[in-house]
Specification:
heterodimer, A: 2-enoyl-CoA Hydratase, Chain A, domain 1, 2 domains, 8-stranded mixed sheet, globular, B: alpha/beta, 2-enoyl-CoA Hydratase, Chain A, domain 1, two-stranded antiparallel sheet, disordered N terminus
């Protein structure tokens, strides 16, 4: 997938590669031209990615090459052992969960998982969990609490799956139970919004002591398409809705709904995986250090107080 | 039950134009369920339930209060708490908020306070679909949290009547976060412990269904209410097939094990007070 905003940049990069090829094979010295084009590419990159609209960010957040939970699980953690199933009904491939080590220390890590191609996307239901996905996450978070392990969750979903069976098996109950559970588990919980934060399906694994968000990720109460079709009966006005919904990392930070915005490499997380992993790892380490020194009671009080504040209220009269 | 709404009618700014089915004339309304013409005084006497098909029409929060609270016991909380426009949706939205306030006589989508219910002191919150579809933004979330905290503080039951299409889009992520803070407040009430009773009415969906409404110690629902997470249209578009007629109704969720009881309106108050009476253990017994 190529984004509209990226096109001129990709074109320039293709030219550079061609010149390099000629330089190498034909024995012509093109190094001066190549340097010039490389400088141009850097400038172009700067100007493109410093002026992204909310809609551009929605596209970036949904980019097929954007690293997903399974990438972070191997890039930021070690010794990952995936664990399956909700012990009631099924294993939901839209949620990846298991035990791992973070900086050598055992933890539970879980997150939504989209697929990389069509086949995997179908298998993983495009990262849209059914109730058993939330219940698997809940089961492992309870396990973490019992053994005093910190919990790391990664958010990347268009939303909870809207299907007949999902409703039959209590999608609403599964989400509510997880949110409530996360409010009372006496271990540090850290969440990173790595791509698309789709409404209740995102929050179902995202009530946390720290909620971090990658610069180009989005987190929204409803998809821009859904908002446009409800508010204006026109899904084509999604771009407008994206702006109105305030779903960018910057707006969420301003409203106090996320704790930190993590900078991405120029061009987006997918353009430098190692750099992205380092950023995420450093931030998680920093926040975990603060949280792990807190007493259980203080941790839970702080978590409650944090969410207690999340409202904009006016007084009439 | 005649004259049930009389006490509060004076306080209501205008008669419920939103909740009532279309009036075919001044004295007759048409049932939204079966189309039968119902004489308006009879309609109110029957608590807005059709005698023929038992369709439960929506009630305003004030009517619901009259149905549940013991007369003269209600003390409203946070009557001055109003929504702002934190994302800058614009004047159109602010105008709609103002006209909804005037029409419903509510500060936002929930009426809350303390009262006694069948002789039991409770903290009570009632959502009103007539206010922006009962949508939950900061104010509704705050009122829910204060009802739950108020109940915890006074060690009395919390009763929440839900009637909502979900989160309020115009407050964006602030609305989504209301799911988080209301769920957290339920858990605090659970720890007291004080009973938390939910009454789901038509509709209870999306962000409200998937947060505090799903967490009641006891969850009752009115017959035929629409309940669920995803909207019908979204599901139909996703799976590309028509949905069965009873799908996402109270009866559907009773059958699937997510509700305790489906209770007709006429026996709702008695059912609620009977349950609360058994869960509110007198202090001398717990000691």
């Amino acid at each position: 997938m190529i984004l509209e905003v990226e096109k001129p940049l990709l074109e320039l990069e293709r030219k550079i590669r061609e010149l390099q090829e000629v330089d190498r094979t034909a024995g012509v010295d093109l190094s001066a031209e190549i340097r010039l084009l490389e400088r141009k590419a850097r400038q172009l990159k700067q100007s493109i990615f410093q002026n992204l609209s909310a809609w551009d960010r929605v596209q970036l957040a949904r980019h097929v090459d954007r690293p997903g939970t399974s990438d972070y699980v191997t890039g930021v953690f070690t010794n990952f052992v995936e664990l399956h199933g909700d012990r009631f009904y099924a294993d939901d491939p839209a949620v990846v969960a298991g035990l791992a080590r973070f900086q050598g220390r055992p933890c539970v890590v879980l997150g939504h998982q989209k697929g990389k191609g069509t086949r995997e996307n179908l298998a993983r239901n495009f990262g849209m969990p059914n109730p058993e996905g939330f219940r698997k996450a809940g089961r492992l978070m309870r396990l973490a609490a019992r053994f005093g392990l910190p919990i790391f969750t990664f958010v990347d979903t268009p939303g909870a799956y809207p299907g007949i069976e999902a409703e039959e098996r209590g999608q609403f109950e599964a989400i509510a139970s997880n949110i409530a559970l996360m409010s009372e588990l006496p271990v540090p919980i850290l969440t990173v919004v790595i791509g698309e934060g789709g409404s209740g399906g995102a929050l179902g694994i995202a009530l946390a002591d720290r909620v971090l968000i990658l610069e180009n990720s989005v987190y929204s109460v409803i998809s821009p398409e859904g908002c446009a079709s409800i508010l204006w009966r026109d899904a084509a006005r999604a771009e407008e809705a994206a702006t109105a919904l305030g779903l960018t990392s910057e707006t969420l930070k301003r409203l106090g709904l996320v704790d930190e915005v993590l900078p991405e490499p120029l061009g987006g997380a997918h353009r430098d995986l190692e750099g992205t992993f380092r950023t995420v790892q450093d931030a998680l380490r920093r926040h975990l250090e603060t949280l792990q020194d807190m007493e259980e009671h203080a941790l839970l009080e702080a978590r409650y107080a944090k969410y207690r504040r999340m409202a904009v209220l006016g007084e009439a009269r | 039950m005649a004259g049930l709404f009389d006490n509060l009618r004076a306080r209501r700014p205008r008669v419920d134009k939103v909740a009532a089915p279309a009036a075919s004339s001044e004295h007759w309304v048409q049932c939204s369920g079966c189309g039968t013409a119902i004489y308006h005084p009879t309609f109110l006497e029957n608590l807005k339930v059709c005698e023929k098909c038992a369709h439960h029409h929506r009630m305003t929060a004030w009517e619901r209060l009259e149905l549940l609270a013991d007369p003269g016991t209600f003390q409203e909380w946070d009557a001055g708490l109003v929504s702002g426009d934190p994302l800058g949706f614009g004047q159109d939205y602010l105008d709609k908020l103002r006209s909804d306030r005037e029409r419903t006589g509510l500060s936002d989508g929930m009426l809350s306070g303390s009262c006694s219910l069948g002789g039991i002191p409770v903290a009570l919150g009632i959502m009103d679909f007539g206010f922006r579809g009962g949508s939950m933004g900061s104010v509704v979330g705050e009122k829910v949290v204060r009802v739950l905290e108020g109940a915890a503080e006074n060690r009395i039951p919390a009763v929440l009547v839900t009637c909502s299409g979900g989160a309020r889009m115009q407050e964006g992520m602030l609305s989504l976060m209301q799911m988080g803070r209301t769920c957290a407040a339920v858990r605090r009430l659970n720890q007291v412990p004080a009973p938390f009773l939910v009454i789901m009415t038509d509709p209870t969906t999306a962000g409200v269904a998937a947060s505090f409404a799903a967490l009641g110690d006891v969850i009752l629902a009115e017959p035929g209410a629409t309940i669920g997470f995803s909207g019908r249209r979204v599901i139909e578009q996703t799976i590309r097939q028509k949905l069965p007629p009873r799908f996402q109704s109270s009866e559907f969720y009773l059958e699937h094990g997510f509700l305790d009881r489906v209770v007709p309106r006429a026996t709702l108050k008695d059912t609620v007070s009977a349950i609360l009476g058994m869960l509110c253990v007198p202090a001398e017994v717990t000691r």
